[in-house]
Amino acid sequence: MSLFEDDRPKKKTSHEIGVDLSLLSVDELRQRVGILKDEIARLETEITAKSSSRNAAEGLFKK
């Protein structure tokens, strides 16, 4: 174990759709579920923002 090992940048966990899950631990699977839930929330926020903008634009042009 190196003295500088703790200073190394930690690899960010990501998830690739369709990847083999059999080699992952329960903790790793839970971590990936959390990542995917966060991404779903981010996508839904963007959908809401785009829908609001579109509805506002449509409202201007309907008059």
Notes on the structure:
- By secondary structure, the protein is mostly helical.
- It has a domain at 24-63.
- Helices cover 57% and strands 0% of the residues.
- The protein has one helix spanning 26-61.
Low-confidence stretches are none
CA-based shape: elongated
Q: What is the radius of gyration computed over CA atoms, rounded to a whole number of angstroms?
A: 20 Å
Classify the beta-strand content into a percent band.
under 5%
Give a count of the beta strands, DSSP E runs of length 2 or more.
0
The total count of helices amounts to 1
Q: What do the pLDDT scores average to?
A: 85
Largest sheet: none
Oligomer designation: single chain
Helix-strand makeup class: mainly alpha
**Fraction of helical residues:** 55-70%
N-end to C-end Cα span: 70 Å
Element order, helices and strands?
H
What's this entry about, in short?
By secondary structure, this protein is mostly helical. It contains one helix and no strands.
Pick out its properties:
mainly alpha, 57% helix, 63 residues, 1 helix
How are the SSEs ordered, and which strands pair?
Layout: H1 26-61
